[in-house]
Amino acid sequence: MTAHRTDDHVHDLLGIGVGPFNLGLACLAEPLGLDAVFLERRGELRWHPGMMLDDAVLQVPFLADLVTMADPTSRFSFLSYLKQRGRLYPFYVRESFYPLRREFDDYCRWAADEVGTVAYHREAVAVTRTHDATGPVYVVACRDPRDGSRSTYRARHLVLGVGSEPHRPEALAGLTGAVWHSSDYLHVRDRLLGADDVTVVGSGQSAAEVVSDLLAADGHGRQRLQWLTRSPRFFPLEYTKLTLELTSPEYSRHFRRLDADRRDALLREQAGLYKGISAPLVDQIHEQLYRRSLDAVPQPRLAACAEVVDGRTEETPRGSRHTLRLRQTETGEEYEVETSAVVLATGYARATPRFLDGVRDRLRLDGHGRLDAREDFSVDREGGEVFVQNAEIHTHGFVAPDLGMGAWRNAAILERVLGEAPYEVERRVMFQDFGVPEGARRVVPAGAAR
Ligand SMILES: Cc1cc2nc3c(=O)[nH]c(=O)nc-3n(C[C@H](O)[C@H](O)[C@H](O)COP(=O)(O)OP(=O)(O)OC[C@H]3O[C@@H](n4cnc5c(N)ncnc54)[C@H](O)[C@@H]3O)c2cc1C
Question: pTM of the full predicted structure?
Answer without folding.
Answer: 0.95
